[in-house]
């Protein structure tokens, strides 16, 4: 626990873990999985059966893994094959992963204990246990020697087995598990221990300041154009989300909802001031400044022991970008194009505010979240609330899958009425097939609506991979957070929810199309060092950009539920342009934080620059307003500092957009959607993480990624917007 060791130790207490008495005989959830039954018990298995059963399966797997490592150690010199070294573990891992992912689905959608803190604690502990047990094998010298020997010989290995061994080797090397000398292992252990310690302190300090400040809105006029899902997010009482009051406090989901939709400038300014000073010099006990420097110091030390010059070089070694230099080139190319656009747009935002008498004085960050969105829709005369009437959930879902089906030769068949168990009656189940090959890809479980005992926001889980030897197909779970139908009206999607739907349908299709037989290489999972997860969101982001293509936006829209009118050409064009325009401020902020993240961790010696000095320098370079006196936002910037493997990885959002828009441009230039879609599917998506992403992308494009399309997206060439409108109208 990190407590100080007493000067004189007189004895120890050994506390053994609680071991559930569950087994296949008395636990239906475990029995269902062990007998390779077709579908999980989402309704009839109790939460207790699912949780205790999964914990017991973890423990059984850990014991099996330990015994297998001992066997490998005792039989040194014997011939090692994939079948006698790796397969015994993969057999049990399949069942454990299936149980764990299905448990997560149940916990976030239909758990009996609705107290969020309790569920989060349970999820945290079970996730830590899963991660520890799954990757303990990589620390065993006998297992390391065996997989290296097999990988070097390559005898009798197919491409998937070879890639899995390569993935294991990359992961254990990146973590230093291959270092066997006692001195190096002690040094690495020390670095890791301090990294965990200061990361925990950083997170604890941020969480401790979440509830210190609340901003209450009593008058709905302050949220005049907020869509239902924003009102529900901010509601103090979920049963009274339409009438209020509404509360913003220091948690990301609420604070950014408040920033975007609250019309009261004073409240926005107050909330933003508290947000950017969280866990900083404004808090004596919860100041994260020293924790940032300690995280830099210890990660730098670990990277150098592993043979890297900096934390960035270590983190990016196995990513698609491959090096800090590549990421720097992308950031600089975007900065050259986007910064002038941002500065010009500042004038447009000032004019909009002045002409509409919204506020006086200059604009600041707490204004831009609100003004950027408002100005974009006013500029193109788009009513974002009325737009929702074109997008009822299930018709939109069917249209989205129809478009994806046409692009990639897929079919989605509703099989909900085949008596398969569902955690909630709102859920639907679809069988997905590839019409080109006739191959059944798997089944997609969709739980669409937000509700009181539903814990998470939008997410997608790979329930299980296909197993021919077990006779089981692939299962993917898509969990949505759309507003539930009410008063006889269907669930209508706001454009923000529509973006999330497109992203997660894209993620689901990505998982379904992967032919990898092993979970670890099904897709490039984050946060593993061995995975090039900067490419993970490429295809989901490609689908998300359907909204920015007028013809695709029309294809996924339904007739207006009140008037029955179709989404008109000029409305689709204006909407696509408005959505692009509305995203500029957030994209520019992402560019800033990507630069800060990379610069902070690519230093070979952290003492070259204190984090706050770097933050102030970059802020002055990027933004036209003066930094607020108490702006210490890195002290609470969890997306960077709370996730150690993600250091220097904040660029991945822009990288995914670059890849996605590059693919869209290829579709446009080739002009044969079916042919291009089939090539993307077979050369890239079917491979999952079966090869490095950079090589897969080259096979599809015949070249490296181009930064041109993303630059053109945020900085259109002269007259392009006008030409696009003219072409559409003609």
From TrEMBL:
Keywords: Hydrolase, Metal-binding, Metalloprotease, Protease, Zinc. Residues 258-712 form the Peptidase M3A/M3B catalytic domain. The keyword Protease applies. GO terms for biological process: proteolysis. GO terms for molecular function: metal ion binding; metalloendopeptidase activity. Its cofactor is Zn(2+). Binds 1 zinc ion. PANTHER family: LD37516P, PROTEASE M3 THIMET OLIGOPEPTIDASE-RELATED. This is Peptidase M3A/M3B catalytic domain-containing protein.
